[in-house]
Design brief:
single chain; seven-stranded mixed β-sheet
Length: about 200
Amino acid sequence: MPEHYYTSTPTSAHEVRSFRAVFAGRVLAFDTDAGVFSKQHVDPGSELLCGALPDDLSGDVLDMGCGWGAMTVLTLARFPKLNITMADVNERALSLAVANVEKNHMQARAVLSDGFERIEGMFDAVITNPPIRAGKAVIYKMFEDAKAHLKPGGMLVLVIRKQQGAPSALKFLKELYKKAEVIARDGGYWIIRCDA
C-alpha cells in the first residue's frame, strides 16, 4: 500500500534535506525528510495563509496537520508571543516540526493526534493546510471539529486550492460557521477565514 504524508508511521527510507526560507523579515531554517508533505520547500499555500493572518492575532493557536512545522515557524516569525500547539498524525513529521521550532529558537507544544482525537482545550484560532488527499469526509470532519475547539469569537483559517474543492468547501463552511469568507487568493490557492 502506498504511503501518504498522513500515514501515521512512515516507513520510507530517510532522505533528510535542509533549506532556508525568508518570511516576515527573518531567515528561517528547516530540515525535512521523506514521507512528509512538501519536503523540498515551504508550500506556497501555507506561506500565503501565514501572510494573510490578521495583524491582531493573539492567544492560543492550533496548527492542525502541522507537518514538519512550516506554518508554526512562519506564524511565530510574525507573532512571537503566540502560544501554538502543533498537531499531526505523522510521527516523523511531528518530530521534524519540534526540531524546526527549536532550530529557529522558538517554542511550541506538539501533540501526536489523528485529527482532533487527542486535542484538549480551546483555541483563539485554528490554522490548517488540510490533507486534501485524505478525502472530503476527513477534511470536512476536521472543519467541524475545529469549530468545537474554538473559543467564543475564535476563527478557523485554512488554505485550499480552487481545483481541489475550494468553492464547495466554502459553501460547506458558510453553513457551519457564523461567517466564512475568502481573505486572500494567489496561484489557485484560496485562504478562507471562518468565524465561530
